[in-house]
Amino acid sequence: MADDAPTTDEAPVEEAPPTDERREAVVAELRELMGDAVVDALVKPGLGIWVRVATDAWSETAEVVRHRMDFRFFDFLSAIDWLPSPYGRYEDSAVDVPFPPPMPDRADAEPGYTGGDTRFQVLGSVAKPGTDLRLLLKADVPDDDLRIGTWVRTFAGAAWHERETHEMFGITFEGNPDLRHIYLPSDFEGHPLRKEFPLLSRVVKPWPGIVDVEPMPGEADDAEGGEDA
Q1: What is the pLDDT of residues 2-29, one digit of tens each?
Q2: β pairing state of 38-44 and 120-127
Q3: 21-85+97-198: which CATH topology?
Q4: Helix (H, G, I), strand (E, B), or coil: what is residue 148?
Q5: For 141-173, how does the pLDDT look when each residue is reduced to its tens digit (9 = 90+)?
Q6: Phi and psi at residue 45, in whole multiples of 5°?
Q7: What pLDDT is recorded for position 229?
């Protein structure tokens, strides 16, 4: 029986990508207030806002989003090292990891949403009380001068976070008067969250999750019984 359904050569209509006018408006307002200091921005509809700002505008951005845009809730501040790990994934290696390893090329780094031009970036998250609007701010930290402005004059809660970031990554927050260590001795050498900092227990022996594990009592017998059944 012939198919009487109409035919057409028209291409299917593509659906427009989802938009989020409320979050796009936040980005537009921040661009208006900060101008060229806003390097890049990304909105994921219904989820969040990512904005990268110029390094020298980091402290000013905190003041603007709190006092002029009402993002008064401080969530967290930290940093990230985009350098690929010179050790690879410890758990993927069944043999000892070479030490010291060859350092990877920073050009292979993938700096995530809104990009990045340096190995280290600082990240700060703030929210607008009474709404579901959250803003993740990020800024590059110069490779040859690991310093950036502080947020403590705007968000007092950032003090502890900046201390931890200074300790773990070696980034100095200019204007923060108290960057003492929190976890490690004051004379500790190195910064444990940098990619080149070795996890020594994994350098000297394989990751325990990939070595042969002896079966629990009774498991071997059960397996043999299952084969005979």
Answers
A1: 555 555 566 666 776 788 999 999 999 9
A2: unpaired
A3: Beta Polymerase; domain 2 (3.30.460)
A4: strand
A5: 999 999 999 999 999 999 999 999 999 999 999
A6: -50, 125
A7: 42
User: 190, 165, 162: which is closest to 178 by C-alpha?
Assistant: 162
Other Cβ atoms closer than 10 A to 223? 10
**pLDDT of res. 95:** 55
Token pair, residue 145, equals: 């001068």
CA distance 64 to 205: 50
| pTM of the full structure | 0.78
- State the DSSP code for 54: -
3-state helix, strand, coil in the chain (%, to 5): 30, 20, 50
- Residue 100 preceded by cis peptide, ω within 30: yes
Query: 155 burial class (0-12, 13-18, 19+ CB within 10 angstroms)?
Result: buried
